[in-house]
Amino acid sequence: MTEYYSLDKALDYGLKFAKKIGAEQVEGFSSNTREIELGVEKKLPSLTNGISTGVSFRVTTKNNLGFGFTKTLTKERIESTIKAALQNAKSKGKDPDFKTLPLPSKKPTINIPFDKKLESLTSDMLADDTADLIDTINDVKNLHFLQSQMFLAVQENRLVNSNGIDITSKRGAFGGVAAAITTKGLIPNYSFVVKGGNAKKMFKAEDLAQEAIVQIQRAAAPKTMNFEKEVPIIFEPMATIGVLGGLFRLLINQLQGNNVASGATPYSDQVGNQVAVEGLTLIDNGLNLNKISSSSYDDEGIPREETVLIDKGILKTYLLDTYYGNKLGLESNGKSTRSGMMGFGDPIKSAPSIGSTNVEILGGDSSKDEMIAETREGFMLRSLMGLHMSDQSSGRFSITGFGWYIKNGEVKYPVQGISISGMLPELIKNIDLISKERESMLLADAPYIRFANVPATAKKFDFKTRLLLSVAKAISIVTGKHPAF
Amino acid sequence: MDESLYQKIFEMASKENATYTDIRDEDSLYTSIEVIDGKVQSSSVGSEAGIGIRLLIDGVLGFAFGSKEYYKEVFSMALSAQKTSKKLSKDKVEFAPVKAIKDNVVIKQKKPAQDVSFEEKMKLVLDSDSLLRDEENKIKSTRSIYVDVLRRQTLATSEGTLIYEERPYTNFYMVPTARKGTDTNQGMGRAGHVGGFELFDMVDIKKRAEETVIRTIKGLEAKKIKPGKCPVVFDGSINFLFAHEAAGHSAEADFLRAAGVLRGKLNKKLSPNFVNLVDDGTLEYVPGYKSRTFGFMHYDDEGVPVERTEIIKDGILKTYLTDRSNATYFNLKPTGNCRAEYFSSIPIVRMRNTFLEASKGKDLSEEELLELVKNGALLKRGGGGQVDPIRGTFNFGVSEVFEIKNGEISDVRRATTITGNTLETLGKLMGISNKMSDPSANTGFCGKNGQRAPTGTGGGWCAVKVMTIGG
Questions:
Q1: In terms of domains, do A45 and A187 share one?
Q2: Is the same domain home to A391 and A315?
Q3: Does residue A481 surpass a pLDDT of 80?
Q4: How far does A365 lie from chain B, in Å, by closest CA?
Q5: Which residues of B touch A190 (CB under 8 A)?
Q6: Confidence of residue A344 (pLDDT cuts 50, 70, 90)
Q7: DSSP 3-state percent helix, strand, coil across chain A (nearest 5)
Q8: Domain range list for chain B
Q9: Burial A15-51 (b: 16+ CB within 10 A, else e)
Q10: Is the pLDDT of residue A456 over 70?
């Protein structure tokens, strides 16, 4: 009969076995994640309960690294995983940039407490919250609940390496996404909101429902329009750095040490230079007490920190782990990550690599209302599509979004299909207003930002499409039910 | 395959009055190698294993996953998920009937990737990466990524279906970056198939690398295309991108159950008569090419045999893409589109090989399409895309752009994006060529609900009356 090891036994055995077969240094990582994902699509729920467990190893020889993972905790599979990882390391030959796996750090650490209340939450409680959320949205005239997803994850990790690091940690994530649709106007429209944090108090389904209602009411009765001009564009915080794709995600990518080291970014050798307007300060804060990406240590055992990347427009440093810190002659600032909270990736399968934690953009001295009032003609954008197709190396982007048309200092109406394009490194030198007010999002805190001049295009639906929409609208008036929903 | 374990789970399910149970038992193998600027930057080997259990009781599904040795706990979690879902369910799940199937499918690798040494794989990636340089040193940075996956899964259902399948994927990317001052242009070359390491005997990687380098440099030196609206011809890769992202996602029944632009449009005319939108899981090879398409498979993850699904036939929307429950909901037949990325993923509606083709005898040659557009843009090599199936809008990357002047291919222009509305674009198709493109260069990973699925494949060129081009 097959013997399955516990996670601790698998780690301990793996570390010893790696040394026995010739690894110079070895790091083991184990993870046990219990998760609940409760989705509802209109009327149909879909609930996943799961436990994800496994181990991964980084082994070194000849100054190089090999990585392997397994979710089958048998002696045979652990051995074959480590043998293959070590073979990889040997085959790669000497890497002059590799110095060592992390050593125990002397930097101070800050405790990010695990909220034990998360362990008392059940899928039934999430279902009750979801039922209330659906009712709250459906009770509003002209609004319909479209979909929601509640998530709860509790992750227990252990990281051990042959240099003396041995860290156990427990982290939690609790939150949700909700979307509502409105059939007001000719074109049905929907809007979604995301909220959550690392503690029970950080998320209330009622708040999610209320925010979804606010957002969909703002987005109701959108129009399409023909437009082709350079105009000021106001980015709402979600469009700037939202979890589902904000423009500054591209900037964060360009500030990652791995991209800097390979020259695949305009910011290599730019530390100390003015790269953005004076009003822009960009921080990666791994110690924000309320966010799901916060932890005392990064995923290779270096203490997390609050890192100012751009200070008043001046580039200060990059996002670094131990390897790229060495390579660039800098120290790691604790940005090593293994993806995996909330279903985004799998920490067991992910070799540690550089990633942002919680991005914070400091507020300025304007306000959202002032920005609108000072815009003679332009758009305010909330959601974007197509960011992942941008040229990461140059920052060239061309994206399509949803937002509002502004004319003579007033928001006129919502608009679908606003396309903007440009070069992000130039654009961040072209910011003319930053709001005092900031929005707290799942992985970021950001203000409203106005870019002074951006080429924007939009296209009005053709006659046939408008006719089809009119027919659908007429059907919805007569039958009380919209064909598209 | 662990039939005695599956039987134990079925018996446990039967005691809970489950009307349907399925078990996906997976033990898959992975290798990846990433080379940056001629140096192996990262590599990974690993195995992904576990079981996922779905239970259907009283018209409500519950799903859970975990390690196989803890199958009793996984079963309890699935039962708990079902009970909780029942509180919220206002729509009953009913599976369309299908024939129980017992099968053992091993898609052959002429040169199994798992038998090839790490050294050989690494050499291939390093050698290929070195091909991404140019004599004039305009390419400043290179990145090459190799991935092989052997998906090994058993699907067992309480209806008697028992399918073991081994499906191998081998995929390779080449990403050179050209730079001039602060201006850069990133290129992309791909090679991939359902199969093993023989991919590199079938595809001339040297030639593909050289072509990628030339395109990348030309793209850097080219002028921008004027943003705005114009008629376009697009190539087979953008045919795939449009058919998959814009039209295909809009036809997925699970999306449509909630909302979407194609809801309520079955049997309605959406396109000119010559237009067909096809999603074909049975398409193993494209005539003239040796590599298997990336969306080829035998069964979906509910054990339904895949088929060639004509979503739009002669311009008319004929069906949605379905899994078993949504087939019942829309009174359609199951099309074999239910897929899950891993044992830990809940199965959802996904595509396979998706492309537009012209009705028999109505296809045009590439030259005829250029002539039809006369003056506009030729868009080649799709670079990813995104669609909003509810609003019906899409945004695609285009890596290679040419002007069309008087029906001839003219000046090269910079990489750009195109945006549009799905229904409008379907209605504005002017012509389609049925000369399909190289499937090894048209491999995709579609993302939906946090899951990725390998999909294909390149169709023929198409002409559209008007498209909005980014800049």
A1: yes
A2: yes
A3: no
A4: 32
A5: 259, 390-391
A6: low
A7: 25, 40, 35
A8: 3-221, 228-469
A9: bebbeeeebbbbbbbbbbbbbbbbbbbbebbbbbbbb
A10: yes
* Closest residue by Cα to residue A380 from A334, A415, A430: A415
Do A211 and A230 lie in one domain? The reply is: no
pLDDT on residue A343: 45
| Sign of the CA dihedral with A46 first, then A52, A58, and A59 last | negative
CATH classification at residue A30: 3.30.2290.10
What residues make up the domain containing A444?
225-458
pLDDT for residue B369: 98
Query: Quick one: A272 and A358 in the same domain?
Result: yes
Q: What is the CATH number of domain B3-221?
A: 3.30.2290.10
Average pLDDT, stretch A168-194?
A: 91
Q: Say what the ipTM of the complex is.
A: 0.90
Instruction: Give the closest residue to A306 by CA, choosing from A147, A109, A472, A159.
Output: A109
Position B403 pLDDT exceeds 80: yes
Structure tokens at B337: 């589109």
A135 belongs to a structural domain: yes
For B292-318, the pLDDT digits (tens) are 999 999 999 999 999 999 999 999 999
Q: Do A419 and B468 touch (CB under 8 A)?
A: yes
| Same domain for A314 and A277 | yes
Report how many domains make up chain A: 2
A114 in a structural domain = yes
Cβ contact (<8 Å) for B85 and A127?
yes
Hey, what amino acid is at B310?
E
Using CA coordinates, name the residue in chain A closest to B38: A262
Mean pLDDT lowest among B7-11, B324-328, B464-468: B464-468
- Residue A340's pLDDT band, with cuts at 50, 70 and 90, is low
> In the predicted model, is pLDDT for residue B229 greater than 70?
yes
CA–CA distance, A171 with A162 (Å, rounded to integer): 24
Tell me, yes or no, whether A176 and A78 share the same domain.
yes
Residue ending a domain, among A198, A218, A238, is A218
On whether both A304 and A245 belong to a single domain, the answer is yes
Q: Among A187, A218, A249, where does a domain finish?
A: A218
pLDDT of A274 > 80? The answer is yes
In the predicted model, is pLDDT for residue B77 greater than 70? yes
| Same domain for A103 and A235 | no
Q: How many CB atoms lie within 10 A of CB A168?
A: 11
Contact present, B464 and B231 (Cβ < 8 Å): yes
Tell me whether residues A50 and B36 touch, CB distance under 8 A.
no
- In a domain, residue A472? The reply is no
Instruction: Find which of B26, B70, B85, B88 to mutate to test the A interface (most A CBs within 10 Å of its CB).
Output: B88
Residue to substitute from B45, B323, B346, interface A, most A β-carbons within 10 A? B45
